[in-house]
Amino acid sequence: QVASFQGVAVRSLSTSSPHEHPEHGRLVYKGNLAKAVLGVRFFSYSTSIFNLFMMPYIILKTGIGFESLFVQAAFYGLIGFFTFVTPVTLHVLTKGYVIRLYYKDEMDTYTAITYNAILTEKVTVFHQKDVKIPDITKMFTTFYAKTKSMLVNPTLFPNPQDYNHLMGYDKSFYFNLEEEKEADERK
User: Which residues have C-beta within 8 Å of that of residue 49, sequence separation ≥ 6?
Assistant: First the structure.
């Protein structure tokens, strides 16, 4: 008699957890707006492409023509604004949104997955020492990894210690009173 595996779940013999990535490390963060960001950007790109292909056809078929050069420039400027500026603005606002964040303990490196301009995943690898917290809170930036701004939601880290380590909050504070006195004396 031959056993059938139809409809039976087969388990993998892997020893790693489902949150381990062989190349990037342990999954420490997963953004909950990843699909929404991808969907909005895809919709914006698709409507812009549709607009680029349809506008010449609509202008030719309907005979939309303006006598005034100023009115023509205003009309085409408005169409161009929504065709090109909207996708660029969405890209600028969402390019730092972290979809997934992995941590590799042995190397103390993080791997952030974001979307690039053509909606594919972009990998950014950085060390914890490369993380800089902005002096002034910014709307779309939680931290800088080297020079790239990143946006994460601290409440979506399953383990708060991972967020604390990422931001450097687990390091002990060191105050050098001598340096402060010298800085005051120079003023």
Answer: none
Q: Taking the mean position of all CA atoms in its chain, how far away is CA 27?
A: 16
| Cα separations in angstroms, 53 against 44, 48, 58, 123, 140 | 14, 9, 9, 33, 33
Per residue of the chain (187 residues), give pLDDT as tens.
444 444 444 444 444 455 677 788 899 999 999 999 999 999 999 999 998 888 877 777 766 666 677 877 777 788 888 888 999 999 999 999 999 999 998 888 999 999 999 999 999 999 999 999 998 878 888 999 989 999 999 999 999 999 999 998 888 766 665 655 565 565 5
Q: What is the DSSP letter of 99?
A: S
Q: For the whole model, what pTM was predicted?
A: 0.73
Distance CA 173, CA 158 (A): 25
**Phi, psi (rounded to 5 degrees) for 26:** -85, 135
Neighbours of 110 (CB within 10 A): 26
Q: Cα dist. 31→27, 79, 150, 177, 187 in Å?
A: 11, 34, 12, 41, 45
